[in-house]
Write a structure and sequence with these properties.
This protein has four helices and no strands. The chain has 142 residues and is an all-alpha fold. Among the domains are: 33 residues, no CATH class; 60 residues. Helix 2 crosses helix 3.
Length: 142
Amino acid sequence: MAECCWTALDGRNPEGSRQNQQLRPIVDEVTDPWGLSVERVEIKDVEIPGAMQRAMAKEAEAVREKRARLIKAEAEQEASDKLCQAAQEIAANPAALELRRMQMVAEVGVEQNTTTILMLPSDFMSLANAVTNKLNCDAAKA
């Protein structure tokens, strides 16, 4: 069995025929003195040492991890862009913030066995105080 280490072994073999052509002169060099002519050389099986297999597996895992990190980074960038866009829309229309706040209160209210403390904007507080004062004034007159 001959050992050859002149090619990259990364699981793909687009150069298979080229490798076979490179191997033929090596074989001819050995067979010509015997008067033999080799018509075709083809690599059928490649045995990769265990250490090389482990190294290749680590490399493949690193490539997959890199791809996963890139996908995650792209997703985070998209989420950041969407949040930025939402912030701009809310800044342009303060009523949108109040709608979002009411939606959040509704979502929190769905959860069971929770105590919820709401921080209301000062506009609501002043409105609530005005309504309370009006009701107290009406009650005092009656």
